[in-house]
Amino acid sequence: MSGSGSRSKTSSDLDAWLRTGHRPFVVVISGPSGVGKSSFVQGLLAAGLNLEYSVSATTRARRPHEVDGRDYLYLNRDEFRRRIEAGEFVEWAEVHGELYGTLRSETERRLDAGKNVLLDIDVQGGQAVRKVYRDGVFIFVLPPSLASLEERLRGRGTDSDERIRLRLENARREIALVTEYDYAVVNDDLKAALHRVASIIVAETCRASRRHAMEPR
Fold first, then answer.
1. What is the residue extent of each domain of the chain?
2. CA 200, CA 195: separation in Å to the nearest integer?
3. What is the arithmetic mean of pLDDT over 81-86?
4. Strand locations in 171-214, DSSP E?
5. Residue 208 — pLDDT band, cuts 50, 70, 90?
6. What is the pTM of this model?
7. pLDDT, tens digit, for every residue of 105-115?
8. Is residue 28 within 8 Å of residue 126, measured between CB atoms?
9. What is the distance between the alpha carbons of residues 54 and 40, in angstroms, rounded to a whole number?
10. d(CA 126, CA 141)
């Protein structure tokens, strides 16, 4: 009888474990400027992956097509510095002369609601986020080549030659740190690359370790 009861209890525990959802996690997308990260964000959010985008804060000027609160939270430098001193950022960094950061409130609010949180941040930010969210998924998007990256940057028509040169120099430094990420995906074809990234997120969602562990028997 005791053996039967033990098996019944184990079966009940297993049923309960199978019904639990996965613990939500942070997904970091990094890569050099111009590699297509914004297109990845849009595609992933439309893919039904239980993802919500955590909007970064920045001191960069808003571009004509951008919307405050959707593309970035636009702050002046004094306000940004005040929030740094208050410990409100998970990570922040100065990139191309402007400040960028991820507010802890933006990520925690979504995780608490059971959503996976998507972050589009630079390599410096990715390193800082890993220290806070150790079970996060870190994906680096690579260009097919530096020549193709330069072509994309010039095609945007938003940067001066000097700005493009600076972005390419930064790209070389960032790409050198790709091995610090869990996954590397080359954006040679956006549709195919997006499918690979979505598959990574689905696989990570299925990790047994992201469910509540059963007590050992």
1. 23-208
2. 9
3. 97
4. 183-186
5. confident
6. 0.80
7. 999 999 999 99
8. yes
9. 14
10. 13
